Amino acid sequence: MKVFLLLCAALIALGGATLRYTQWDTYLWHHWNINRQVTPADALDLSRYRVDIEAVALEGVDDDLSALAFNDERNTLFGLVNGQPDLLEISLDGKLLRRVRIEGVRDMEGMAHIGGDRYVIAEERHQRLRIIELPDGVQTLDVSNSPRLTIAIDDSDNLSFEGLSWNASEQKLLLVRERDPLRVLVVEGFVNGDGDLLQVDITEKARLQEEDLFVSDLSAVEVDNLSGNLLLLSDESQMVVEYAPGGKAISLLGLRRGFHGLQRSVPQAEGMALDNERRLYIVSEPNLFYRFSPVEP
């Protein structure tokens, strides 16, 4: 595989300005370039990850599976179905445990677990965040009066907020805009681990601007609590990129057939989460569940 990557990268380089790059050319080039570097000891190092649960269809979910968050207190995952809209609790091996109908919200595209029964969800079209409480035993939850924050920094359309993650150590939300332009935003003060509303501060992620991302869209964001590194998922570019806190790309996970043990390409990756064992979970429309685990060399 490494020889194959080197040959592809060499062909891309020889093509020079006359070659029209595809998304996969971009992946191969950056994969080769990043693999020449020394990976930090505390990094995830996505190159060593292999799929161990592939394309499991969630029972009772037909379409519009979007977003994923890990709840370390319950040791389960939570996902969203934006067409219904429904909130799902999912086991770590891809079994549907609970389904809750969400009322008073439209076009849910991002989700983060804050602590206890508290979550934040992102509404794409309205560019809005909501804090919700999700107790056990409910089948329907009305969130129309829940605390909310509108972040109207770009034209409102269907290319807005796509992914959301909670950085517990720094008490910050990370939010990504899909494209036009790509954005990685940091939201401080909207909520903390205790659920208190504070003075809100919204900034664009320093040292991680659009020209540094080398992907065509952003579908999800996740923070690795051990290293502080950032994971960004791109559906169109079919890859996950790991970035050091300073903004340098340090590893890649390709989501095409033949890479990392995949028998088939991931069709439309929309959500991503890490668990306490640093296993990586991805959900893909229409209703597919994947798990990637680190394999020691």
TrEMBL record:
SUPFAM superfamilies: Thermostable phytase (3-phytase)
Keyword annotations from UniProtKB, A to Z: Cell membrane, Membrane
InterPro entries referenced in this protein's UniProt entry, alphabetically: YjiK/CarP (IPR009722)
Protein name in UniProt: Uncharacterized protein
Compartments, record wording: Cell membrane
CDD domains according to UniProt: SdiA-regulated
Entry-linked Pfam families: SdiA-regulated
Species this protein is from: Halopseudomonas pertucinogena
